[in-house]
Design a protein that fits this description.
Blueprint (H helix, E strand, L loop, with lengths): L2 E7 L6 E9 L8 H15 L4 E6 L4 H11 L2 E6 L9 E7 L12
Parallel strand pairs: 2-3
Antiparallel strand pairs: 1-2, 3-5, 4-5
Length: 108
């Protein structure tokens, strides 16, 4: 296994999902597997009727922001100070799957 992605649906609106965790094994990082896994996961969610996906990212994690926003199409929603405890801020991002058209290659 190269990695995994875990999503949960919102309790009050099952058409919305939240990316809880995503990881790629160390030796496979930087080879496109994470982006490929995320794209395939989002395509699956869209095909199954979900309309929005949200994530949070550390404001200093520019690499993740580049992937989520520039490559995938997530948009900035808000800055959340101390979201995961004192001094652990997060950027809240969202992707509208209804209007999203993925650019998917057949492999990473």
């Amino acid at each position: 296994m190269k990695g995994f992605a875990i999503f949960i649906r919102e309790w009050d609106n099952p058409r919305f999902a939240y990316l809880v965790e995503m990881a790629i094994e160390g030796e496979s990082q930087g080879k496109g597997y994470g982006c490929y896994l995320l794209l395939q996961s989002l395509v699956h969610l869209k095909k199954n009727g979900l309309s929005n996906v949200s994530i949070t990212v550390d404001p200093i994690n520019l690499r993740a922001q580049h992937i989520y926003c520039d490559k995938i199409g997530f948009g900035f929603v808000e800055f959340r100070r101390n979201e995961y405890g004192q001094g652990r801020d997060r950027l809240f991002l969202r992707l509208d799957l209804k209007n999203w058209t993925p650019e998917i290659s057949t492999s990473p």
